[in-house]
Design goal:
This protein is α/β, with parallel strands linked by helices and 250 residues long. It has one domain: Spore Coat Polysaccharide Biosynthesis Protein SpsA, Chain A (Alpha-Beta Complex), CATH 3.90.550.10. Helix content is 39%, strand content 17%. The chain contains eight helices and nine strands. Helix 2 links the parallel strand 2 and strand 3. The protein is globular. The N and C termini lie far apart (41 Å). Bound molecules: guanosine-5'-triphosphate and magnesium ion. Magnesium ion binds next to loops.
Length: 250
């Protein structure tokens, strides 16, 4: 079956959000004539997320489910979703409505028709913002965004989980997904030439629990080291230099 776009939704215990998210994404794609695959990548949730998805799959041939039992984590789940996606164009979106699903057709249009390799929903470009976040989350997220800009300076929000890619940029790339920042891993290592950011308003989740843990900071620092090594020691990529060139030359 041919799909125009694979929408990957990573889940862990999202029983309050999953049904509404699947129905919302599908109705938005239908309204814009996008023939989408929805791929749920679940880390073996112990609530009723998997049961709900299986029930919805009965009359939705575009809805697919991967249940993971090893190496849990958000980035490893997104990576599994990407390598199992049916379409060449791939959209990642959180399940908790923090990312506005109504923007999916904009990502799709830019990546399909304007030749961009990656489109990022950014909280830190003009028009983007974060609402309802506690001060500590704001400080940590802004700090990580600043540190990320030391490596990939032309992208303001490389940590966003709301992004779309053309899968061709991953050919021949060795990713080491860990932590929460899969987009940053792709920016640091994959073969992109053109990246675009669009503003998004990021809302804190209304339902369900956060899975963010303290070790996410540790994972991020390891990831920065891995991207530096990939660029300057293993020399499999020149993305850091390219990003700085793009930044300095506007
Ligand atoms: N498969 C999988 N999905 C995860 C994991 N951790 C989080 N997710 C999903 O990834 C998305 C983002 O996780 P969140 O817990 O919302 O993280 P966050 O947005 O940084 O934090 P809050 O919005 O405060 O909860 C959600 O759809 C989660 O269900 C994980 O370990 N495995
Ligand atoms: Mg969230």
């Amino acid at each position: 079956m041919h799909f125009d776009l694979t929408v990957i939704i990573p889940t862990y215990n999202e029983e309050e959000n999953i049904e509404r998210m699947i129905i919302t994404v599908d109705s938005i794609c239908r309204a814009h004539d996008i023939n989408e695959e929805i791929l749920i990548v679940d880390d073996n949730s112990n609530d009723s997320t998997i049961t709900i998805v299986k029930k919805l799959m009965v009359d939705r041939p575009f809805l697919h489910l991967i249940i993971r039992t090893k190496n849990p984590g958000l980035s490893p789940s997104l990576y599994d979703g990407i390598i199992n996606a049916t379409a060449d164009l791939i959209q990642c979106i959180d399940c908790d409505f923090s990312h506005p699903p109504e923007k999916i057709p904009i990502f799709y249009h830019i990546i399909k028709n304007e030749g961009y390799d990656m489109v990022i929903g950014s909280r830190y470009v003009k028009g983007g913002e974060v609402i309802n976040w506690p001060v500590l989350r704001r400080v940590l997220s802004s700090g990580a965004a600043l540190l990320s800009r030391l490596l990939i300076p032309h992208v303001k929000d490389s940590g966003s989980g709301f992004f779309a890619i053309n899968r061709h940029i991953l050919t021949g790339t060795l990713l080491s997904p860990r932590g929460f920042r899969m987009g940053f891993e792709i920016l640091g290592k994959a073969h992109w030439t053109r990246v675009h950011e669009i503003p998004i308003v990021f809302k804190d989740r209304e339902f369900g629990q956060s899975k963010l843990k303290g070790r996410i900071i540790f994972d991020f620092l390891i990831q920065c080291g891995s991207i530096i090594k990939y660029n300057f020691i293993v020399r499999k990529s020149t993305n850091i230099i390219r990003a700085w060139t793009l930044f300095l030359h506007g």
